[in-house]
Amino acid sequence: MRNAGTAVSAAQNAAHIGRIGLGPVRWHHALLTLWTVCWFFVATRHGAVSWHYLKQGEELLFGQEQGGGLALYANHPELQIGPVSFLVAGLFAPFPADGGEKFAEAAMSGLGLWMVVLIGRAAADHYLGTGTNHKRLQQRVLIAGAAFIPMWVEVSVRFAHLDDVLALFFTTLAVRSLVRGQATATGVFLALACDSKPWAVAFLPLLLALPRGTWLRSAAWTVGLVAVAWLPFYLGNMNTLAAAHFTIPNQPATSLRWFGVNDPVTPWWDRPAQMALGLGLGALAVRRGRWPAVVLLAADARIVLDPSVYTYYNASVLLGTLIWDAIGQRRLVPWVSWIALISLYGSALIVPSDSTRGLIRLAFAVGSAAYVLLWPMREPRNRRGGKRGAATDIPQQRTPVDEYPLYANPAG
After folding, report:
1. pLDDT at 246 over 90
2. Adjacent-strand bridge partners of 381
3. Residue 119 CA: distances (Å) to CA of 114, 148, 172, 313, 400
4. Which ranges does the record mark as transmembrane (predicted)?
């Protein structure tokens, strides 16, 4: 009875941590909202740089232009965008062109803010029963989220890459489901991420962080939904296979130059190497009981081997650091997120040398990967005095209500 009373008391106390007055809104959410709005207005003046690709693909998919339908990717291999992204882009088609762009930018910005909230809640779920200070956790999410938002606005507003936005959003939902032990939902969300943007395949090691008994079910959902989305295009036009070999220029500031790769376009081995490196590092992270590092490691593999250096690529890195800083480690100051922002975004703005920028990207990718995989970490103790953090420690269908019946999301 004493333990039960203590749990209820803790739930009541946690329910009020960080709230503004008696309302449901917490201070760190309000501050992050204001921070997002500020960056939105800074970026929207020169925003939606790539929105025309989504609009073109949506029109091709629904047969409004010739050469579309199931022949979309065969005739337009430059559209390296998943069919789910084109379907979602269709939601903005009824609006006037300018209005649709601004509405899409605002919606995608809002998704980024929601993702920060979801990761905060995932962290609260992950640390339930470990004596974690929820106020410190909220502060950690606030500081890491403040680093994440500028890069999120870069991908969602300035470039308006709905495909990248959806891939990262669905991956965030997968992380939330993973922490709650929801194997089917985890598989579904990872499939939707891959169906939005092909490079999201590198996030699939998250499935290995589920209990072993659920691997087959979750993987079946992932493979099945990926097949449903992509197979019709391959079966409808076999030339779609050629789209996988589409190349882009090998830019001077890429880290590939430091490996001696001076080809003018994407080397034939580059994309497979990206995927293999991301999947391998992610699997190793899960093996070492550090599954919150999977997204960061996949993003590191992408930026270190990609022939292009667009700043919106860094949004996946900052999502990875946000997940790591909120869930993977327990320090109050999430310095990994801020090092990522300063080194990747800051160098793009102030470092004039292409070669130096490539070296900075390489140094961050290698350094952050080594840190999350090898640095000794202090693991939280569970209610029975044992350790948590390994993949098999994630229970099935756990919800915060099981331990905090009066309050579902103590950290928010």
Report:
1. no
2. 387
3. 9, 12, 7, 20, 14
4. 103-120, 141-160, 215-235, 332-352, 358-377
pLDDT digits (tens, 9 = 90+) for 330-372: 888 899 999 999 999 999 999 999 999 999 999 999 999 999 9
Cβ neighbours for 326, distance < 8 A, ≥ 6 positions apart: 119, 120, 122, 123, 137, 140, 141, 144, 292, 334
Using DSSP's 3-state secondary structure scheme, residue 132 falls into: coil
Tell me the one-letter amino acid at 312.
Y
In angstroms, the CA 191 to CA 94 distance is 27
Per-residue b or e along 195-233, where b marks 16 or more CB atoms closer than 10 Å to that residue's CB: bbbbbbbbbbbbbbbbeeebeeebbebbeebbeebbeeb
Distance linking the first and last C-alpha atoms of the chain? 28
Three-state SS for 64? Answer: coil
Confidence at residue 1, expressed as pLDDT on a 0 to 100 scale: 40
- Cβ distance 321 to 149 under 8 Å? no
Give, in order, the Cα–Cα distances in Å from 88 to each of 165, 166, 226, 380.
Answer: 11, 9, 16, 40
Of the listed ranges 132-141, 153-162, 263-272, 343-352, the one predicted with least confidence: 132-141
Among positive and negative, which fits the CA dihedral 134, 139, 142, 143? Answer: negative
d(CA 334, CA 9): 29
Q: What are phi and psi of 19, to 5 degrees?
A: -75, 150
Task: Give the side-chain half-sphere CA count within 13 A for 8.
Answer: 5
Mean pLDDT of 83-92: 95
